[in-house]
Amino acid sequence: MKKNKEKKIAIISGRDPRVADDTDGGSVFLKYLSNELMNRKNKVDIFTPLGVTAASFKEEKVKKQLERGKNKDNPSFHHILLKEKSLPIKKDSDYFLRRIERGKEIAKFFKNNSLFEYDLIYVLHLANAFSLVSQNLLPLEKTLFFPMMTSTHYSLFSKVPKKYVDHEKETLCKAKHITSPSDDEIDAIALKFKIDKEKFFKVHRGFNESRFPIKERFKISDKKEINLFSANGIRQQKDHLFLIPVVKYLIKKGFNVKVHLTGNNGKSHNPSYNDYLKKFLKSIDFNNLEKEFIIYGVVPERKMVSIMNSSDVAVYPSTAETFGKSPLESMVSGLPTVVCKDVPAFLEFIEHGVTGCIANRNTKDYCNEIIKLWKDSNYYHQISRNGISLREKFSWHKVINDLLTIQEERGIG
């Protein structure tokens, strides 16, 4: 991106950072992307649905959005007035069909071709652009797509209608510029949809240095007590059920274990996430582990960091990730982190035994990594210190600077 020249930039997203009350990766990315763009003296307009998150309409969100409006510290906001559809979300396919309908309403909002007045357009999540692309309402040479999540990942834990996949394919085929936080996601999308890899470029996700302060760790308590932490929302792809046998194994080895979880509170826009939480809670109850699992629900970032800082080890047993924002935040804060080796995206920024711990996806191996951190204070401290060393590489300022540099090289906008 050219320096010292104001750009007029549009961001089309299903999120509104003024009212986000969670630590979801999409909300966080939007917030820091827009802030960095404004800090570089660009005019930034965010187009976001009124009252809608993904596929769920909420009157209370409308009230919040209208109350907060614009202020001098925020970019301009334009609300897309979506018509609430009658389609109930009772199963996975309904969720995706609803997102298609949302895309049609977004296209109606831009039917006057106003997006062609911008120097650069960012689209966060492909579904927001389905109808914009099919109706030729986007200047594709000036548009950068952030897939966020596609059916390559959704289909691992949900039934995705063919109609939705067809929309994805059309959008990706017509797109000129697509960016992803990991080689794994690029490879998966390119292979499934037969998309030329020349369209893609990789830029990692980042973290906020002021929100995630350094806390270098030297050892876990001499007592056989371990506080585990996970910031991932409780849903299928995060595989929290994996933690049930992990806790039982550690208890059998004589440890007093507490698992601190932040995320889904049972009121997600996706019914399958809520169903998974119910299944998880039922499993906790069945195994008599109510005292071992502390579930905080959706919490603000400040609260999440406080819980993280009082814990000993971060655990992320996810089965699929486009990157892994939460493990990164734990690591750079100095909290030794354990992940599973069958998630390729993790391997792009976690080095086993150096910046983090990578285990096979089985209870014994995963627990052995945790126990090793408890037993060996030198190892525990080394992992903590080396995780902190990644801070400069993954700060939001550095990450978005990389994004803008590559954009300029590709001649976008």
Q: How would you characterize the overall build of this protein?
A:
The structure is a single chain. The chain is α/β, with parallel strands linked by helices. The chain has two domains: 8-206 and 395-410, Rossmann fold (3-Layer(aba) Sandwich), CATH 3.40.50; 225-393, Glycogen Phosphorylase B (Rossmann fold). Helix content is 39%, strand content 16%. The protein has 15 helices and 15 strands. The chain has helices spanning 25-39, 59-68, 92-109, 130-134, 151-154, 162-174, 183-193, 243-252, 271-286, 301-309, 325-332, 363-375, 377-388, 391-394, 396-410; strands spanning 8-12, 43-49, 52-53, 56-57, 76-80, 120-124, 143-146, 178-180, 200-202, 225-230, 256-262, 293-297, 313-316, 337-340, 357-359. It has a six-stranded parallel beta sheet with strand order 12-11-10-13-14-15, with helices on both faces. Strand 10, helix 8 and strand 11 form a beta-alpha-beta unit. Helix 8 (243-252) packs across helix 12 and helix 11 (325-332) packs across helix 13 (377-388). It is globular, with a radius of gyration of 21 Å. The model has no long low-confidence stretch (mean pLDDT 91).
